[in-house]
Amino acid sequence: MDLENQKRVKDFADQYGPENVVVLVGAAEGEAAGLAAETVTAGDPTFAGPLTGVQLGLTVYHICEPEIKEVVDPAVYDEQISMMEMVLDVDDIIEEMSSIRDQYCKYL
């Protein structure tokens, strides 16, 4: 997650309260999704951005996870995401995201 997006997430959490913020990621692989998820929950693991040492504990999901897929308009999901979903290792992404949520999310 780049430094600008880290700042945006931190600002939203400060403005609306971390219990009211849900972060959706769309990385193409589990490891990248996990890194973004870890950043918004446990703090920036690269120690380079505004979330360094900031444990927001935000709720975070990948766009391809069933919990998100079931609340998105099916036509929009089909148009915007389904093609990408066919080439992703969705099981790996779900496993990685679940692990991060189990470890660091405070607001599930």
List its traits.
mainly alpha, two-stranded parallel ribbon, 7% strand, GRDA
Distance between the termini: 22 Å
How can the largest sheet be summarized? 2 strands, parallel
What class would the helix/strand composition place it in?
Answer: mainly alpha
Number of domains: 1
Helix-strand topology string = HEHEHHHH
Number of strands: 2
Radius of gyration: 14 Å
DSSP strand (E) fraction? Answer: 5-15%
General form: globular
Number of helices: 6
Spans of at least 5 consecutive residues whose pLDDT stays below 50 are none
- Residues in helices, as a percent range: 40-55%
Strand order of the largest sheet: 1-2
* Mean pLDDT score: 97
EC number: 1.21.4.2, 1.21.4.3, 1.21.4.4
Subunit structure: Monomer. Component of the glycine, sarcosine and betaine reductase complexes, together with components B and C.
Protein name: Glycine/sarcosine/betaine reductase complex protein A
GO molecular function: betaine reductase activity; glycine reductase activity; sarcosine reductase activity
